[in-house]
Request: fold
Amino acid sequence: MSRLQQTHGLTDEQREIIATVRAFVDKEIIPVASELEHADAYPQAIVDGMRDLGLFGLTIAAEHGGLGESLLTYALVVEELSRGWMSVSGIVNTHFIVAWMIAQHGTAEQRAHYLPKMAAGEIRGAFSMSEPGCGSDVSAIRTRAVPDGDDYLVDGQKMWLTNGGSANLVATLVKTDPAAGHRGMTTFLVDKDPGFGEVAPGLTVPGKIDKMGYKGVDTTELVFDSYRIPSAQILGGTPGRGFYQMMDGVEVGRVNVAARGCGVARRAYELALDYARRRETFGKPIAEHQAVLFRLAEMATKVEAAHQMMVMAARRKDSGERNDLEAGMAKYLASEYCKEVVEDAFRIHGGYAYSTEYEIERLYREAPMLLIGEGTADIQKMIIGRRLLEER
Reply:
């Protein structure tokens, strides 16, 4: 086994989970990933396999039917899944964020209703914060929820929902008191039918957004037109707490994106190393040419550094401490290093990297998404810088 991306201090149960997922990735994901990705086909058989492994309930407490594992265990699982195909990790990520938010902030009734079904994979979660005109400026969202008796009427348009079509539960951030700034935002738990078109009265999922990478998983819009929702569907039962709840979800999401970057970078390094050993020029494998050897050394160092920072961020969150600094650093470093490692692997493959027959072509299209997801590099730098200035 490679010395890269080793995580010290794991329990026997954690090691068994990671080994099981790694074997699943090698057998069930890697052999079919490129074919499914090029067809932009939803990987239903893989999703069924992940459900059978219990991955949808990995971090959900045992009292609700889950495995009760830590954020670190989840991040290491995501790293393995992303090594096989990053889109597969996206299918469980938004589900995980929603389950985390319900477990941390939901009412007792919400936890009892949703978490057992989420652990079993019967309810699949999506996470909706972004809108067409707001980008990284969450305060600029325009979707409104107006009280109407015991219900609210919601109007607006959300954007970039991973699992927007396949999910049947969407944690959605809206404004309930626009004059109150961040304190006027509320998270609603929106139930809907899976699929596209009108998925509930007043709620439409127009269709999949066509993307250059990150295919297979459905990315959608969500349009509200006088959509009626009971006030009991407010996460935690009290309006005005949505921004804080969403930021908590994004914080663990950044650890997830860092883990994705680690997994994709690891796969790119593996492909480059294997190709460099087999490809010969000037009478010897290209791995023995100093230029390629140095490139491989730099790639391996970046793979290892990103992994260790991701592990640190996950462990800090698991300890109950604030981890926005570490999560921001891990997300920033892992996504940037992933891009660089994939590009170096692309260079090592030479002209063959441009062929869709080679896996590195897919990774080259997937890596850029990590530079954007859960906050751009500039946003991470702002978070990191502000936290550093708070230090005494």
Summary: The first helix runs from residue 12 to 39. The first strand starts at residue 125 and ends at 128. The radius of gyration is 21 Å. Strands lie at 125-128, 144-148, 151-162, 169-175, 185-191, 197-200, 203-205, 219-230, 280-281, 284-285.
